[in-house]
Amino acid sequence: MEERLLEIRNLKVYYFARSGVVRAVDNVDLFMNKGETLGVVGESGSGKSTLGLSILKLVPPPGRIVDGKILFDGIDITKLSEEEMVKIRGKRISTVFQDPMTSLNPLMKIGDHLIETIMVHEDVTREEAKERALSLLDAVGILPDRINDYPHQFSGGMRQRVMIALALALNPDLVIADEPTTALDVIIQAQILELMKRLKKRYNMGIILISHDISVVSEIADRIALMYAGQVVEFADAISIFEKHLHPYTEALLRAIPNIELADQELVYIPGSPPDLTNPPKGCRFYPRCPYAMDICKRKEPPAIKVKPEHMVKCFKYQ
Amino acid sequence: MKYSVSKRISSITKRIFGRRGAEYYIAGTGAAIIAVVVLAALLAPFIAPYNPIKTVGKPLTPPNSKYIMGTDSIGRDVYSRILYGSRIALTIILLSASFSLLVGVPLGLVSGYIGGTFDKLLVLLMDSIYAFPGLILAIAIAHVLGPGVVNIALSIAVIYIPTYFRMIRGEVLSVKENLYVEAARAIGARDFEILFRYILPNVLPSIPVVFSLNAADAILVEAGLSFLGLGLPAPTPDWGFDLKNGHPYLPAKCWWPVTFPGLMVVLVTLGFSLLGEGINEILNPQLREGR
Predict the structure, then answer these.
(1) Average pLDDT taken over every residue of chain A
(2) Chain B residues with CB-CB distance to A170 below 8 A
(3) How far apart are CA B229 and CA A204, in angstroms?
(4) Which of A185, A254, A298, B34 has the fewest CB atoms within 10 Å, counting from its CB?
C-alpha cells in the first residue's frame, strides 16, 4: 500500500468580490501518493492556480477556503493557524512560481536567498548553510562561483533553476510548481522539466505541476487532473488520461495538441469560452461547448463517477 | 590595498562627475555648496576673526577691510556671526531631518505592509498634519516646547514626518505586490524578514532625495522661527535671529546686517535643493528623458 501524501476532499475556495461570489474551486476531490507527480491541467481561470495557493494557505483576499479538507500527510491544513503554516511553508510544502524574472529579490544575492531560507528554518551556522546552498546550486546546474551574483545577472532559465533550488532548499515533501515553464522558451522548458524529473527521483518528493499545457504535464506526471470552471472533470493516472480518456473536455484538449506529422492540418480548438464563474451554468459547466451535450446536461450537474477505483469522470455519458 | 582603495575612489568620482549628464552637475554643485558650508561650520573657531557674541567695533560699521561684512546694530562682527551661525543651522537641519526620517520611515513601512484599520488611522493622522501650513504648525509646537536646539528641531521634524510616511507607504504598497515577496512568503519567510530583507531595501533609494529636499525646507522654517523670536535665546549666532535684528535698519540704508545672513539661508537652501533634485534625476532616469 502506497502512502498518501495529499488528499483533498470536497474543497471549495471562493472569492468574495464586489461583483459577486467567484467559485474558483468548487467541490474538488484529489489525491496523490508520496513521491508522485500530479499534473493539474486547465484553461486560464479554471481555478488551478487557486488550488495550488490553497494548499499553501496563501489564497489572497477576498478569497477564502469555504469548505472541505486538505489532508497533507494526515494533517488538515485548512485548520492550521498562520503560525503553524509558516513552519510548513518551504520546509514541507514548497513552491516554484510562473515568472522567474520577478520571483527573486533584485537586491539580494542568489546565495543569500538560499542561505537565509535555510537559516530561518533550521538551526545551522552560516557556513553550513552556505555549503548546502552550493550543493543545491550544483544540483540545479549552476556553477558555484555564481553564488555572489545578483538576480539581474541571470537569464530567465537560470533564474528558474535558482527558484527550483530555493524550493528544494529545505527538502520538502511536496513542491507545487505553478506553470514553472510558461515564461520560458521551448528549449529551456525541456531542460527545466528534465531537471525536475531528475530532482524528483533524487529527493523523492511529490510534485504538483500546474499547467495549461497538457503536453508539458504529460512529460512528467503520474496522475493528471483536468480542471474546468473550478471543477475537476476527469482524474486518473496519466496513461488512462492519454489512452482511455472519457470526458469530452479531455478529448477536446488532447485533440488540440498540434501534430507535427500532419503539416496542413488546421489548428483544432474548442469553440466557445469558459463560463463566468460568478454565474456558472446550472447543469454541467461544459455543456455549452460540448459536442455530446444531452438534455439532462442542461438541467443537472453530473456526479463524480468512478469508472475504475482510481479513474473519476464527471459526465452523464458514463452513468 | 592602498591602490585598490584609491582606484575605487577614483571610479566613484568618475561615476559622479565623469558623465556629461546635467543631473550630475546639479547634484555635484549642490554637494559642493553644502561642503563649503560644512567646512565653514567646522572651522569657524579658526577662521572667524572675532568673537561672534562680543561687541568688537562701532555699531553698524559698513563692510571694510577690518570687518569684511560690517558690524551689526550692537557692533558685533557679521562675518564671524555667519560662520558660527552655520553650526547652529546645520545642527538643526540634521537633527530635524533625522527625527522625521526615524519616525516617518518605520511608520510608513509598517502601515503600508499591515494595511487595514491601522493603516487607515495613520493615514488620517498624517494627512491631518499635512493639511496644516507647515510654518504655523511649527510655530505652535515651538511655542509649547520652548526654545532650545533640540526643541526647534523637533517642532520642524513634525511637519516633515508625513512626507516620509506617505512616500514610504506608497512604495511599500507597490513593492509588496511583487512576486518575490509572495515567493518569499511561499518558502516560509516571516513578516519580519519580508519587511526588512525584501521590502525595505527596495524602498530605500527614494529616501536620500526626500532627506535632501526636507533639509532645504527645514532651514527656511528654522530661519522663520528665529525671525519670529521662537528660536534660540538672544546672543547665540543664528541667521534668522540676525535677520530680525538687522531689518529695522534697512530703511537707514544699512543693508549688510540683513543681506549676509539672508544670503546664507538662500545658499544652504539652494545647496540642498540642487543635491536633492540631482539625486532624484540620477536615480529615476525616466525623469531625465522627460526633460
Answers:
(1) 86
(2) 187-188
(3) 77
(4) A185
Q: Of the candidates B178, B182, B188, which has its C-beta nearest A90's C-beta?
A: B188
| Residues A12 and A230: beta-carbon distance below 8 Å | no
Instruction: Give the per-residue SS3 of B141-160.
Output: HHHHHCCCHHHHHHHHHHHH
Record: contact A120-B188, CB cut-off 8 A: yes
A 62-101 residues inside an 8 A Cβ radius of B: 86-91, 94-95, 97, 99
SS3 call for A44: coil
Does residue A188 have a pLDDT over 60?
yes
**Which residues in chain A touch residue B184, judged by CB atoms under 8 angstroms apart?**
105
How many residues would you count in chain A? 319
Which of A94, A107, A108 minimises the CB distance to B187? A94
Give the burial string for B93-131 (b: 16+ CB within 10 Å, else e).
Answer: bebbbebbbebbbebbbbbbbeeeeebeebbeebeebee
Distance from CA of B116 to the nearest CA of A (A): 12
Close Cβ partners of A238 (under 8 Å, ≥ 6 residues apart): A39, A218, A221, A222, A223, A224
Please tell me the predicted confidence (pLDDT) of residue A295.
Answer: 83
The three grid cell numbers given for residue A19, joined into one nine-digit string: 461583483
Kindly report the number of other CB atoms within 10 A of residue A254's CB atom: 16
pTM attached to this predicted model: 0.74
Instruction: Render pLDDT for A114-155 as a digit per residue (tens, 0 to 9).
Output: 898 888 888 888 889 999 899 888 888 888 888 889 988 888
Q: How far is B85 from chain A (nearest CA, A)?
A: 41
List, edge to edge, every strand of the sheet that includes A37-42.
A93-96, A174-178, A206-211, A37-42, A223-228, A231-237, A311-313, A305-308
* B190–A86 CB contact, under 8 Å: yes
Partners of A95 on chain B (C-beta within 8 Å) are 183, 186-187
Question: How confident is the model at residue B2, as a pLDDT?
Answer: 46
Instruction: Kindly determine whether residue B201 and residue A107, on different chains, have CB atoms separated by under 8 Å.
Output: yes
- Tell me what pLDDT residue B19 has: 54
What ipTM score was computed for the predicted complex, to two decimals? 0.71
Q: Which of B217, B220, B107, B221 has its CA nearest to residue B162?
A: B107
Per the document, the length of chain B is: 291
Helical segments of A140-263, H only? 156-168, 186-203, 214-220, 238-243, 248-255
Question: What mean pLDDT is predicted for residues B219-227?
Answer: 90
